[in-house]
Each structure stands twice: as structure tokens, then as C-alpha cells.
């Protein structure tokens, strides 16, 4: 009886506070400098205007405060499709750069660019982000930001030398449910956090292979004969065995656990299954005599990584892109008081949920703890990709460029989240041995305070 009364009380308290009272409005440096900002227009350039780059361009075109001054891509088709978008929006044509892979360096000499959105193949991210920072401009770099450990250090060093910020454009950090969970974690509703599960569980076979003309799920080509990501991404599955795409899962979890801001990743272990899915797909699509049926794909079908954090939490990340399966990032947040799971969207909070040992739907918590960003901008975000999160991530980058303030997801996040890829490769190569995760903040994690999701703008 006593338990029931307590449960009812806590449940009613948990479900009656408004989200506005949950999130105090923190008057940020960003807000203050926005007030001072003389020129409200942000001048953006884009390096890489393939599938992802064009979706960022489209988002930018919805905003009156953005001018697209230059674009750079060696693909004439990509440039032409981007210019069509810009023309349709009634905007001035940007200057195009496309003369080879290094044309971005010429573009970066322009003095009418404040920020640069980089959406190129992974191996180009760091050279482009470093050159952008060296040119004194804000860099917004797609995921994953880096491929090697050295590249993660290069990114951090470039920022520390130039003072030009670099934001990893991790859109999943803005997913509505993971932001509501972040809100609940910060209110202590899960108790002390102990564990998270996440991953990139996405059947990419139809992206890794195509017929060289479109991403319509037809064909077994990749590399020189592949279109869009099949042109470059698939080669990583040939050459590497590790978690090749950790940041969609890890970004939100890093915010839940205050990584780089009071906590940090210390070490990891990784294990990979055998590699079967990509070979089978090539044979199914192209027959056993297709030349790609001879390719030896190094990437295991499912790669499992376990990260240990300084404050004692564990994070399991799954990379699962080679098998038939419905999409799921497989989030799970767990603490001493309860647990939320993305799959089936269920929650259980001890003393709050109506029945012990029983799940309840997350929907009413989602509504109650909806993040103020979503409350304010849900309608505007409606037309943006990936359920609206693409709107928020680009907005955060633009607001940070506009207000000349640090982005909410910074170069240290970019460095350590992305470094999980090479470190997982190292662990697998050593028979799943533990591998140290460097402290890219060089000790600043001990005093840095959380900023993500705590300001009006970001
Ligand atoms: N956050 C997300 O949800 C999300 C979704 C899709 C892709 N991405 C990321 O976006 C990036 C791009 O992916 P995509 O799907 O657009 O691939 P894509 O192959 O469709 O486009 C890449 C573009 O980069 C161009 N490019 C290649 N080398 C270049 C160079 N040296 N200079 C300028 N341009 C160059 C290519 O010509 C192409 O147009 C990748 O990092 C990918 O992981 C993120």
C-alpha cells in the first residue's frame, strides 16, 4: 500500500511538471553575442554536394539568413543538381569549384564565406575541415568525422592552433526521443546512469552496391562503377574490420553520459562476426560469376564494441550494415531507477511505472519531457530529412556561425566519437584485446561543463 502511494505520488510528479520548468533557459554567450551581431546573414559554402550535401543545401535554402556563396564538387552532375535547387529557390547562383579533388583549397581563399559544410567521402573530411579552420572559417563536418586516430588528433590540433571551431554534424543527437531521454536523465529520473546500448543497425546493402546510375537497389557494382556511396563507402568494407560508423549511436549517448564534460571514454573492446552478407548480396544480385563475387570483404557482418567510461558506465555499440534487417539504432538508457528502450519505445521506472517488472509505453513521457527545441521548432522541422533532425543539426551549426560562439557539439566530440572506428579495428585485429581511448581534451574533460541541449539556440 505504502509502495503504491509513493509510486502514485512520484508518477504524478513525474508526469505533471511542464518541460519548460524542466529546462531553465540558460542565457548563453550565444544569446548575448547574437544581440551584438551586426550582420545577421551567414555566408555558407558547401564542399561535396552529393546526396547528403544537397539535403543540407535544401535546408539552408529554407532560411532567409543564409546566403550560399560557393559550392565545390568535382562531379558536374552534383554541381548541376545543386544549382537547380538554388535556382528553384530564387536565390543567387553560387560560385562553383569543381576542377579536381583539391579545388576546395581555392574556394577557401574567398573572403565571403563564414562557414563551410563538408559532406564528402570520409577520407576527405579531415583535410577539408583542417583547411577550413586554417582559412579562419567554421567547419561543419559530416559523420564520421575522421577515419584514423591521427586524423582525430589533426582535427583537435587544427582547432587549438587556429581557434576556428569545428562541429560534427551528428543529426541523431537531435532525435526527439533521445532528447526527451536526455531531459529525463538530467532530472535524475533514471537514477544514476550505468549503461547504454546503441548502434548503427541499417541494411546498407542497397547503398553499398548499385548499377552505377542510381540508388534504386539494383546491381552489384561498387568502386569506380558504383554511384553515390557505392563509389567510395563500400571500399571501407573491403579494407577494414571494425565499427565503421559509430557516431549516430554514440553521439546521443555521449550527451547522456556527459562525455568530455565530466566524464570520458577510457577503453574499449571489439569483436566481429564472420563476413558473409556482402558476398551473398553480390551473388544474389549479380550471380556467382560477377567479378565482385571474388572480392574478400573484411568487415564482419555484426561488430560489437563495449566502451568503458571513467565514471563507471558501459556502452555497447553495434555496427550491423550487411544483413537484411529493419532499421534501428537500438538505443537503451539504463540507470539505478529504470530503463528506456528505443525498440518498441518502452520504459520502466521503479516507483513510477504502474506495475513492477512491466514495461509501459514511452509516449506520455515523450510528451511530458519533450525538449524545448522540439516544442518550438517541430513545425519548421517537419520538412527536414530523417524525421526533422536534419533541420536541428544544420540550425545549430548556422546559429553558432552567426553568433560566433562555440558549437554545441565540438571538435573534441568529433575526435573521440569518430576514433571509435580505428580503435575498434585495432581491438579486433588484436583478438578483442582492450584498447585505450585517448583523452583528446588533454584533461579538460574534468572541468568542462555540459552545454548540449541547454541553450535556446542549440
Ligand atoms: N548524417 C547523416 O544522416 C548522413 C546521411 C548520409 C550521408 N552522410 C555522410 O555525408 C557524407 C557524404 O555522403 P553522401 O551520401 O552525400 O555521398 P555521395 O557519394 O552521394 O556524395 C559525396 C559527394 O562528395 C563529392 N566529392 C568527392 N571527393 C570530393 C572532393 N575532393 N572535393 C569535393 N567534393 C568531393 C562527390 O563527387 C559526391 O558528389 C559522408 O560522410 C556520409 O557518411 C551522413
Tell me what you see in this structure.
With 458 residues, the protein is α/β, with parallel strands linked by helices. It folds into two domains: 161 residues, Rossmann fold, CATH 3.40.50.720; 233 residues, 2-Layer Sandwich (Dihydrodipicolinate Reductase, domain 2), CATH 3.30.360.10. Helix content is 38%, strand content 16%. The chain is built from 17 helices and 15 strands. A nine-stranded mixed beta sheet has the order 14-13-12-11-7-10-9-8-15. A six-stranded parallel beta sheet has the order 3-2-1-4-5-6, with helices on both faces. The radius of gyration is 22 Å and the shape is globular. The N terminus is likely disordered. Bound molecules: nicotinamide-adenine-dinucleotide.
Q: What characteristics describe this protein?
A:
globular, 15 strands, Rossmann fold, 17 helices, 2 domains, alpha/beta, 16% strand, 458 residues, 38% helix, binds nicotinamide-adenine-dinucleotide
